[in-house]
Amino acid sequence: MVSLPENFEEQSRVSLVSVPDGVDTDARTDITTIFGAMRRAIPGYVEDLILKINQSNENEKITCAIIDTSVGWVFEVVNKLGIEAVAIWPAGTACLALAFHVPQLLEAQIINIDGVVTKDEPISLSEDVPGWTNSEIGWKSIHPIIHKVALAEFYSIVPEFSKFYDRILCNTISELDSAALKLIPKPKVLPIVDQFSNKNYICDVLKIGLELTKDENGITTRHEISAKINTLLSSDVIKANALRNIKEIASKSCSEGGSSFNNFKSFIEHVKSL
């Protein structure tokens, strides 16, 4: 917000609106209270905001809502108002596939209700998708309460509210992430942009980066960082993978006629038709 120009609102057709999250000032360090308050407060404020906008201008009503999956309970609001919903998933596609499989993982007792992996082996959804160890799963946290709430309130709402939307925008490229995309049964995933946020993909599959290791005290030292940077910059293999493979595929996908370009174009055309 600070970086926006002073005349941003005059130049842009985008209006930024904030709504209360329902969290008391003295409770902002209690993650359990924060999640609960947000889930109770935000949907009501969002509903009031949509109704106010739609009643103020007959010719410019809200016909589509793009909602981050981390606030999935807002999908119920727009569904009740008869507005089409589209989800957006900012993280990697493999993490999205993992989120959709949380109910099955619980049922198979691969993870327990607290999200802890019960077996001494990585969670594997497919031979073509890198697995997750207990320390690598997306909801893992040092604090046990945050760990449990993150699983219950974030990952579980992805499959829970997927019935409210038919499309989900995802940060990936079809040509590079086809195995993970196949693991997502519903809704239709629209890969629209490149983002490699998963360490296993970067280091083991795409081979365009190096893992930073911690010492016996759990600290990644400056010497470790310096050594990996030097190796990264001097590695001909990593340079070749990044330039010849990843850059070429990503550029082609995002250019006119590419998969990401076509996905985004079809999405915009669909929204304009509502």
UniProtKB/TrEMBL annotation:
Gene3D superfamilies per UniProt: Glycogen Phosphorylase B (3.40.50.2000)
Keyword Chloroplast attributed: no
RNA-binding is among the record's keywords: no
GO MF annotation, one: quercetin 3-O-glucosyltransferase activity
Entry keywords, A to Z: Glycosyltransferase, Transferase
Family, as annotated: Belongs to the UDP-glycosyltransferase family.
Entry protein name: UDP-glycosyltransferase 83A1
